[in-house]
């Protein structure tokens, strides 16, 4: 329950609606209970008037008594109707305030979680899968809303109604009051139990449904692989097994739900039988009137739903507390990468890696080991090395996706940690190894960093990334939708659109993480030539597997197993006749054979 205390700040925020909400609950209950004594009076009146009517048998006044009696009954009927209408009005206001507040809080909470997600670092996203992130913002928030809305509303409703009804009952007859509420705890307990069973089973079904949707989603994404390996039948069988399992559990839930209502009605009926039996004996003893029995039956019908709600609300609050606990876990996560009062300045592009080491926090893999190098402003640094040697890790550290675990990275002689994170990142253009484009138009993908779409700039960036002609050849040109909602670009085209996105930003520091791998050597040369112009006086870092890409760089680092094994320019490294030389010879041979 302590986890739900987090939500109290929202009750305070919406107190101006919440307090009237409580008053509406109280008012609706007063008008809900009042018809019972009215009906008792009417009921007793019927008995008395019938007796009187018989007494005047044969007299001409009998018709007058009949008329008065009829008008009285009509009046009582109208009174009960008026009370019910007023009650309905208050019920409407009750829902309009309390349920509406729950919707407002749901909105606020979703925004709060989503905004918090945005500030969390890469390591957080590595630790948690996307499904989990989505679930906490959707499923868990929905459960919490059930507590905030119906949970709170029915709890107040039950408490107010219970106090009022029990008071009214006790004033009529203590013995009958005790007997009629006897089955109530049993009813509440049973509903609580059945609800927990239903919730437990629903959760199991939800898990199966998630895994079924995950399975289907993956098979659609990987349909090319499935078809080329002729695994359609196997996939169909796996799907059938998963669906069968889902169906089996859904049937189990339907069985429990089918028993739920009949059981409830049985207990309610039992209460009525007790009232009529015990009430009947009290009438015979002369302690109460028959009207009181009718009054009690109305009280009972008033109590039935709140008592049912009690069981339901208890399990609902338990689930909400578990969900809020999960939400709080994320809300209390602090970003690992922070910049408090960071320095905001235009960077010149002088980079220093001073004995930098890095261990990935989640796996413990030591990706970099005492790396030291410097890059002058306006220079190009190239990094080459075997797969898994630590090249992308250098790019990640330069983008401050992670902080180094040893040594120091300095930008223009200022430690990177002292720079304002947003200001620094906004001056860098990063093209990651695994290209990611949004399901949007090509133009908007290229202009992703800009608030306003400036087409001449977008076109220039596309020309510099040597993708302009390809885009123009498409039917809708720059307005072509890509990704899931549109066409599929080739690997090389995607890489170039993503390069255009980085160039469009006019960065002071440009990082290419092996993003020319799917581009042919002639186009690659064109892009590199354009880069020379665009990045004049600015620093570029190019990670590649191909020597042809990097041979013009001022400094080339050869990385192996997280350490720099060779360092220099193309000529000096060739003269060394070490691993760079070997790689060059191998690639030359491959080109000649090709
Ligand atoms: N997010 C991560 N979490 C944990 N370990 C990682 C992560 N990314 C990379 N590694 C590990 O760090 C080491 C260096 O990886 P890195 O991606 O820097 O290599 P790379 O030289 O860029 O390789 P490639 O040329 O294949 O892209 C590898 O052993 C890799 O398994």
Automatic annotation (TrEMBL):
The chain crosses the membrane at residues 21-43, 63-86, 152-170, 176-194, 258-277, 297-317. Keywords: ATP-binding, Cell membrane, Membrane, Nucleotide-binding, Transmembrane, Transmembrane helix, Transport. PROSITE patterns: ABC_TM1F, ABC_TRANSPORTER_1, ABC_TRANSPORTER_2. One of its GO terms (molecular function) is ATP hydrolysis activity. Gene3D superfamilies: ABC transporter type 1, transmembrane domain (1.20.1560.10), P-loop containing nucleotide triphosphate hydrolases (3.40.50.300). It is a multi-pass membrane protein. It is found in: Cell membrane. The keyword Transport applies. Its main location: membrane. The keyword ATP-binding applies. It comes from the Bacteria. SMART domains: AAA (SM00382). This is ABC transporter.
């Amino acid at each position: 329950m302590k986890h739900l205390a987090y939500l109290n700040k929202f009750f305070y925020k919406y107190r101006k609606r919440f307090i009237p909400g409580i008053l509406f609950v109280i008012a609706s209950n007063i008008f809900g209970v009042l018809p019972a004594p009215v009906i008792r009076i009417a009921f007793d009146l019927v008995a008395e008037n019938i007796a009187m009517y018989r007494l005047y048998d044969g007299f001409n006044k009998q018709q007058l008594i009949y008329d008065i009696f009829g008008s009285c009954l009509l009046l009582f009927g109208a009174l009960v109707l008026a009370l019910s209408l007023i009650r309905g009005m208050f019920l409407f206001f009750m829902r309009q305030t309390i349920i509406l507040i729950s919707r407002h809080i749901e909105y606020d909470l979703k925004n709060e979680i989503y905004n918090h997600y945005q500030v969390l670092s890469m390591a957080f996203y590595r630790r948690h899968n996307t499904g989990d992130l989505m679930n906490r913002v959707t499923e868990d928030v929905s459960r919490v809303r059930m507590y905030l809305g119906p949970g709170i509303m029915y709890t107040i409703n039950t408490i107010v109604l219970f106090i009022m009804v029990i008071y009214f009952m006790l004033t009529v007859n203590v013995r009958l009051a005790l007997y009629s509420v006897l089955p109530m705890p049993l009813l509440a307990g049973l509903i609580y139990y059945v609800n927990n069973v239903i919730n437990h089973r629903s959760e199991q079904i939800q898990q199966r449904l998630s895994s079924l949707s995950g399975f289907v989603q993956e098979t659609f994404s990987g349909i090319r692989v499935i078809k080329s390996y002729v695994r359609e039948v196997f996939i169909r069988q796996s799907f059938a097994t998963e669906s069968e399992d889902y169906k089996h559990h859904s049937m189990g839930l339907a069985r429990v739900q089918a028993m739920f209502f009949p059981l409830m009605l049985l207990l309610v009926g039992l209460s009525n039988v007790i009232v009529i039996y015990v009430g009947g004996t009290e009438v015979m003893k002369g302690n109460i009137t028959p009207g009181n029995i009718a009054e009690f039956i109305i009280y009972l019908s008033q109590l039935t739903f709140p008592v049912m709600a009690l069981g339901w609300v208890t399990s609902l609050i338990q689930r909400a507390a578990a969900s809020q606990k999960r939400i709080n876990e994320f809300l209390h996560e602090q970003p690992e990468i922070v910049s408090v009062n960071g320095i905001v300045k235009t960077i010149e592009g002088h980079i220093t890696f001073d004995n930098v080491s890095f261990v990935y926090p989640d796996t413990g893999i030591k990706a970099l080991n005492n790396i030291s190098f410097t890059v002058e402003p306006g220079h190009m640094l190239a990094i080459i090395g075997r797969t898994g040697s630590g090249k992308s890790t250098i790019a990640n550290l330069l983008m401050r996706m992670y902080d180094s675990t040893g040594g120091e990275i300095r930008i223009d002689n200022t430690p990177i940690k002292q720079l304002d994170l947003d200001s620094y990142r906004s001056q860098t253009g990063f093209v990651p190894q695994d290209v990611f484009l949004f399901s949007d138009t090509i133009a908007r993908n290229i202009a992703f960093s800009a608030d306003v779409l400036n087409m001449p700039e977008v076109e220039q960036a596309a020309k510099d990334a040597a993708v302009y002609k390809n885009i123009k050849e498409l039917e809708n040109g720059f307005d072509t939708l890509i990704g899931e909602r549109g066409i599929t670009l080739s690997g090389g085209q995607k890489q170039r659109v993503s390069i255009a996105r980085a160039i469009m930003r006019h960065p002071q520091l440009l990082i290419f993480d092996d993003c020319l791998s799917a581009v042919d050597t002639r186009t690659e040369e064109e892009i590199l030539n354009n880069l020379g112009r665009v990045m004049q006086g600015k620093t570029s870092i190019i990670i590649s597997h191909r020597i042809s890409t990097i041979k013009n760089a001022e400094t080339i680092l050869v990385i192996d197993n997280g350490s720099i094994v060779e360092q220099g320019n193309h000529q000096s490294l060739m003269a060394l006749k070490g691993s760079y030389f070997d790689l060059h010879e191998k690639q030359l041979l491959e080109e000649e054979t090709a």
